[in-house]
Amino acid sequence: MIRIENLCVNYGAVRALRDVSLEASPGRVTAVLGANGAGKTTLLRAISGLVKPKSGSIVFGEHSLIDVTTENIARLGVAHVPEGRGVIGELTVEENLRLGALASKVNISEGLEAQYAQFPALGDRRKKYCATLSGGERQMLAMARALIAQPEVLLLDEPSLGLAPQVTSELMKSILRLCESKNLTVILVEQNAKSALRIAHTAVVLHLGTVVASDDADKVASDDDLRRYYLGLVQ
Ligand code: ATP
User: Fold this and answer.
1) Residue 214 phi, psi (nearest 5)
2) Among 92, 182, 200, 234, which one is least packed by beta carbons within 10 Å?
3) Interval 39-86: pLDDT, tens
4) How far apart are CA 68 and CA 165, in angstroms?
5) Ligand 1, from 10, 14, 48: best to mutate by most atoms within 8 Å of Cβ?
6) Euclidean distance between CA atoms 107 and 168, whole angstroms
7) For atom 25 of ligand 1, which residue has the closest CA?
8) Measured in angstroms, how far is the CA atom of residue 131 from the centroid of ligand 1?
9) By CB neighbour count within 10 A (0-12 exposed, 13-18 middle, 19+ buried), where does 127 fall?
10) Which residue lies with its CA nearest to atom 19 of ligand 1?
11) Degrees (nearest 5) of the Cα angle 74, 76, 79?
12) Is the separation of the CB atoms in 1 and 47 below 8 Å?
């Protein structure tokens, strides 16, 4: 479980997050939604130690993540798949996956086989350069690279970015399947609220760095004001 209370993050004079509180539980997808500049990416970066909060708390299980290095946060079991996926085009699928396992104690051959079983398309392309993959395959690879280290928490930043609707729909289903089958705590940042709300259990809506709603995803999905004013889902 990730528990965040009254989190504030500034970039100089920009107040990117203001008193943000939320909880994310194992086996559940917590969607973090909102327009450009709402603070979604900053929230994930704060959890994984890439930006230092001004105040507030972030607790994972028994561990405070404040003032813990990014490497140690990853070692505790928090994996971050950044926007743009962060896979390396000049390396093969398998080489990218090996990088994901480097800092962990996982047995690399077993880890690779587990990811190929989970994402068969990656197994078929294991020797291909990542630059030759489709957008959907790259996103799968980015997730597999995070999962190979067997994290408990998966932070996903805009996984649907640039993907066709059908590919996004398949990707969302695989995120839900992974979350439930591995009891992962998934925090899913998306501007594509419609797709994220189809699979999320809980939804948090951010606007200009503050939480404007936090509820069961189906309640958020059926709230006309939230849909219209914050989620860009005009009926
Ligand atoms: P997007 O989908 O556009 O990335 P977001 O909801 O993820 O939006 P953030 O990227 O977290 O929002 O940005 C929150 C606020 O912080 C915005 O006002 C943004 O301009 C500002 N910001 C983000 N990164 C920096 C930075 N490195 N330096 C200064 N301001 C920043």
Assistant:
1) -155, 110
2) 234
3) 999 999 999 999 999 999 999 999 999 999 999 999 999 999 998 777
4) 38
5) 14
6) 31
7) 11
8) 27
9) exposed
10) 37
11) 35
12) no
Pocket of ligand 1 (CB under 6 A): 11, 14, 16, 34, 36-42, 191
- Asked whether the beta carbons of 109 and 148 are under 8 A apart, the reply is no
Return the residue whose CA atom lies nearest to atom 3 of ligand 1. Answer: 36
Average pLDDT over residues 125-132: 93
Q: DSSP string spanning 165-233? A: HHHHHHHHHHHHHHHHHTT-EEEEEES-HHHHHHH-SEEEEEETTEEEEEEEHHHHHT-HHHHHHTS--
pLDDT tens profile 42-55? 999 999 999 999 99
Ligand 1 atom nearest to 189, measured from its CA: 7
pLDDT confidence of residue 75: 92
